[in-house]
Amino acid sequence: MNMKTIILSFLAVILITMNGAAQKHLKTNQKLLISSVPGLGSFTAGYSYSPVTLNGKKINIQQIDGALTMPVVNRMKEGKLDFLLAGVSYSGLQLSGTGTQFGGTRFHAISVPLAFQKALSPKYAILASFIPTLSSDLKDVSGEDMIYSGALMLKVRVSNNFNYSVGAAYSKQFFGSVIIPIVGIDWNITDKLNFSGTLPVSEKIKYQLSDKSAFGVNLDLGIGGGSYRLSEKMNSDYLQVQQFSSTLFYEYAISKKFVVAASAGYNFTQKISQYATDQKIDWIPFNNLDDRGAPSAELDKTGIIVRTGIHYRF
Question: pTM value?
């Protein structure tokens, strides 16, 4: 998982995956007045690996992530879907070959994402989400390790083949506040070709080879990036991770609910930087992160990235 602001990844799941499940249900169950929508619950897990060589030294950047999402409320009535989703997610970063320049080699982010949708009509719905996250090296856990994110969006169902969402996302990171307008898109261009994404964060175009397999291109932009608080021995500095990658992916459906995937590509931007607590810039991206000054330590190297993952929907 690219270490971007955690809310942005979660929004991509909510706006695209959940919407797709709902639209499929609408197509096949239009005669039902009150029902629930299958596929809103999910479990995902992934692993990525990016090797680089910097100043003759081999460095490995490994990331592991997992997320469980459960529908607490799931109600479809007369074409209008209301839901409340709750879950837990984990994202870990492990470095090798960097020594102790960042105060350690393992960093963790544990989140409890919540998302609520209220349908105004079969065409319009309001979506709100809130994600508190504990993000640090876990060496001296406290309230200072917490970061918070949220979003508010209007979802519009234009047709069975095209849906979009507009709104804004906000995240309070250790390096400052991130606020960006976002647009979610889910467009079935043809029976086999689909374009989806949460602009300007991530975009994906997928071609369905068969009922079981698909391939495509994925673009991930690390708007602001993710951040971790370091221990008091490191003066409670923070680590910021920024990645911008483009990958080719392949997916195979073992069953209707279970999908495995593999991808490979390139990180056009890959930075791991350490900053002092007071080196902050608010209202990113409207203000330049470079204005906070130089980091005390930094790994700045592009390179290849490979990733494997699974997705189970229930």
Answer: 0.88
